[in-house]
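User: Please go through the entry that follows and flag anything odd:
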Amino acid sequence: MKPLLWKFTLPLLGDVTFPAYFTFLTLGLLFAAILTVREARKLDLDTDDIIDINLYMTIFGVIGSRILHVFVDGHFMDYVNLCLDPMKVPAIDALVRHCNTARECGYDYLCDTTKHLCYPPRDCLAWAKLWRGGLVYYGGLIMATTYAVYFTRKAKIRFLRVADLAAPAILLGLFFGRLGCYLNGCCYGKVTHSLLGVRFPIGSSPWRAQYEAHQIMAGQQMLPVHPTQLYESLGCLLLFGFTYFIVRPRKRQEGFVAGACLALYAVLRIVVEVWRDDERGVLMGFLSTSQIISLGGIVLALWLMLRKDPYAVTAAADSPVSVT
């Protein structure tokens, strides 16, 4: 775990920091954009349009991801209380369980000298601080796709043609994004005693969750957990390779590649969610929000792959046989 990749000081600017989550998220978006622009030239699409789509899909995707996190992941009241009554918000990574002074809590936390508990300072903009983590992929996918539909209609471009172009690149971006999750310590898994188990540092969010659940004592090393961030990261890289190098050159109709990417990712997400242990919203008692959305995604993906497409012949001609 390394939430802060680099930190250095520059004249006039002061401290310059590179948070791991935000840095890897940016790398993922950058590589995805480069890939789609590169492929757009092969498909004789206007690269300016593709650059614009990348830019605005990124903006709307981040907004959608954050909205779903705030309202579905179980943190809505924490964000409200951070602005109205910070004492109600637990300081999940404070250095001590009970405090007498703010210095004992560490970071910028304060100490409630009545209850002897650490709590964060008032922050009415915490919901907007993306670099701290807290993005839900499906929220971003839904809002970014909604914008892409609008843009392609306005530019008179067939949406599914662009969707096939973008889908593998999104999987590549997720590969980097989940690496950022691992370094940030979010999206962690359940306790495991297998060889795959990893431990996060004392004071981290996974450690604090186990401490609050009375699984460990203060100062004790946490129990090993599934590195679900790495499971999904590796899975997305494999799915990218499969859909980009195998499915894409052989697609039968427009929307087939996008459908394949959506279906495969939905299955991967359903499986990985079984080992997830962070708070992310649970519906119907046993299915997480992401699992329910994944089930809907599979239905949509099958429709994209199996429907009759008037552009089937054109779509096949769009895909180059060889990859350079």
Remarks:
- The beta strands are 4-10, 14-19, 110-112, 117-119, 282-283, 287-288.
- The longest helix spans residues 47-72.
- Confidence is low (pLDDT under 50) at residues 313-317, 319-324.
- Residues 77-133 form one domain.
